[in-house]
Amino acid sequence: MVIDDEPPAIPHRKLAPGKLVIASHNEGKVREIRALLAPYGIEPVSAGSLGLPEPEETGTSFTANAELKARAAADLSGFVALADDSGLCVDALRGDPGIYSARWAGEAKDFAFAMRLVNQHVEEAGPDAGRDAHFVCALSLCWPDGHVETFEGRVDGTLVWPPRGDKGFGYDPMFQPLGHQQTFGEMEADAKHGMSHRADAFRKLVAAVF
């Protein structure tokens, strides 16, 4: 007789239609998440529009920071909250800027400066270091009772210089996904939504909770 010691899989909690807080003050992220949620009967409202404060991101991973932000927004608002933590990971920089991607842009959120800084460090690493990079996104859903579901997505690509395109946000103009000739900064929103790290995480979320 074979004894299965594996614990039974815990079912995902389903998300009902209704109001949901997008736990972000980044309008670019809010816009993308709002578009991804549109087909599912969700009424998204941003943390910024509710006047919710931004919690300090003290986690050491994308998942930890996404869960921290989702828990804070759900607790303060009384609604289910969806938080995103995402960033650019550059092989030549041993994964930096990673979870510090937004902080590289400074208090002014100057991503033109951040992109110059990334490119400078990559060039200093030397030609053998290459320009491979990937974006990571962790999406966390938190209910007011503290239950959390988290899903992580990734897209691989390479860094270009100078940046190209004025669409998207953040590091998009310097990131060219594998198999494509345009940067995220040059792509229309629908094209980016079909392949991005956020879309990858969102597909997993949809399969689990809707």
UniProtKB/TrEMBL annotation:
Give me the residues that bind Mg(2+), please: E56, D85
Out of the domains of life, which is the source? Bacteria
Q: Does the keyword Translocase apply?
A: no
Ranges in a coiled coil:
none
Cofactor(s) recorded in Swiss-Prot or TrEMBL: Mg(2+)
Q: Name one GO cellular component term.
A: cytosol
Q: Which UniProt keywords apply?
A: Hydrolase, Magnesium, Metal-binding, Nucleotide metabolism, Nucleotide-binding
Indicate which residues the UniProt annotation says bind substrate. Answer: S24, H25, N26, E27, G28, K29, S86, F169, G170, Y171, D172, K192, H197, R198
Q: Which GO terms describe its molecular function?
A: dITP diphosphatase activity; ITP diphosphatase activity; metal ion binding; nucleotide binding; ribonucleoside triphosphate phosphatase activity; XTP diphosphatase activity
Give the matching InterPro entries.
dITP/XTP_pyrophosphatase, ITPase-like_fam, RdgB/HAM1
Positions annotated as active site in the UniProt record: D85
Q: Which CDD domains match?
A: HAM1
Reaction(s) this enzyme catalyzes, per UniProt: XTP + H2O = XMP + diphosphate + H(+); ITP + H2O = IMP + diphosphate + H(+); dITP + H2O = dIMP + diphosphate + H(+)
Could you tell me what the cofactor note in this record states? Binds 1 Mg(2+) ion per subunit.
PANTHER family on file: INOSINE TRIPHOSPHATE PYROPHOSPHATASE, INOSINE TRIPHOSPHATE PYROPHOSPHATASE/HAM1 PROTEIN
**In which family does this protein belong, per the annotation?**
Belongs to the HAM1 NTPase family.
Q: What biological function has been recorded for the protein in this entry? A: Pyrophosphatase that catalyzes the hydrolysis of nucleoside triphosphates to their monophosphate derivatives, with a high preference for the non-canonical purine nucleotides XTP (xanthosine triphosphate), dITP (deoxyinosine triphosphate) and ITP. Seems to function as a house-cleaning enzyme that removes non-canonical purine nucleotides from the nucleotide pool, thus preventing their incorporation into DNA/RNA and avoiding chromosomal lesions.
Q: How does it assemble?
A: Homodimer.
| Name this protein carries in UniProt | dITP/XTP pyrophosphatase
Gene name of this polypeptide: rdgB
